[in-house]
Amino acid sequence: MIKFINETTEYLQKKGFDNPEIGIILGTGLGQLIDAVEIIHEVSYNHIPNFPTATVEFHKGKLIYGIIEGKKAIIMQGRFHIYEGYSLQDVTYPVRIMEKLGIHTLLVSNASGAINLDFKKGELMLIDDHINLQGSSPLAFKGVEQMGERFTDMSAPYDAEINSKFEQIAKNHNITLHKGVYASVVGPQLETRAEYRMLKIIGADAVGMSTVPEIIVANHLKLKVAAVSVLTDECDPNNLKPVDISEIIAMAEKAEPDMIVLFRELIKNL
Q1: Residue 253 pLDDT more than 90?
Q2: I want to staple 23 with a disulfide (CB 3.0 to 4.6 A). Which of 103, 148, 157, 180 is the partner?
Q3: Which helix (DSSP H) or strand (DSSP E) does residue 13 occupy?
Q4: How many domains, the chain?
Q5: Per residue, what are the HEC states of 145-186?
Q6: Which of 240, 251, 260, 254 is nearest to 112 (CA)?
Q7: DSSP assignment of 32-53, as one string?
């Protein structure tokens, strides 16, 4: 993997990806942040050596380098999931590349379902902690100790200072920003009523199919990291209705302006 990382990094450096400070991973329906970026370079994933290729129809599949709020950033427009058939090492490969290129902070967004019924669809949740239900770890491979400490501490995976700034920004702009625990499952099927009940019992406030692998690797690489979920549906097992993916995407897009305010204001103050 080290050889692959070096090849990918050299390719992107030659493409002008020069000393970025911040990495951003954009989740489902959250692509409009790009409008706030002064784009310097962009490369399709399928042109980048050793990079996975996004296969989900609503994930665009571009790596973008540019300036946002005065900071150099790399933005993943579309992410990878293990439900696409990728390994956890594939899913988190871009995080390793962004760190190798120079980022010190990783900001992540996703769309998720609200397990906590005090949270409503269209609102945002700041991730304070997580539960990994994906069945493995992106650090579970031979040679991982050559890239960072094998037994990575996860007592505080999300940066408290950044989270505090997010909460203050939300307050200043009258944005509803809950704080809670995100559970990451494999997918791509949605949960059964019994599974939603289980998630509530074990302490999850929201559930999705991404994010946790990237957070684990970011901690392995000693990056500062924070993540925000757009709550796109309400997962009430006693009143469960079929979910339309197009409705989830529409809800993510509706909540996106608030997400953009949070991210832009935070980056300005980093």
Answers
A1: no
A2: 103
A3: helix 2-14
A4: 1
A5: HHCCCCCCCCCCCCCHHHHHHHHHHHHHCCCCEEEEEEEECC
A6: 251
A7: GGGGGSEEEEEEEGGGSTT---
Give the tens place of pLDDT for each residue, 70-106.
999 999 998 999 999 999 999 999 999 999 999 999 9
Distance set, CA 171 to CA 46, 59, 167 (Å): 40, 30, 6
Q: What is the CATH number of the domain that holds 22?
A: 3.40.50.1580
According to DSSP, the residues that pair with 65 across neighbouring strands are: 41, 74
Q: Name the more confident of 27 and 12.
A: 12
* β-pair partners for 224: 105
- CA 37, 38, 43, 49 dihedral sign is negative
Q: What whole-number distance in Å separates Cα of residue 81 and Cα of residue 187?
A: 9
Q: Which domain holds residue 236?
A: 2-268
Tokens of 177: 């920003």
Q: How confident is the model at residue 49 (pLDDT cuts 50, 70, 90)?
A: very high
| Residue (of 120, 126, 124, 130) closest to 218 by Cα position | 130
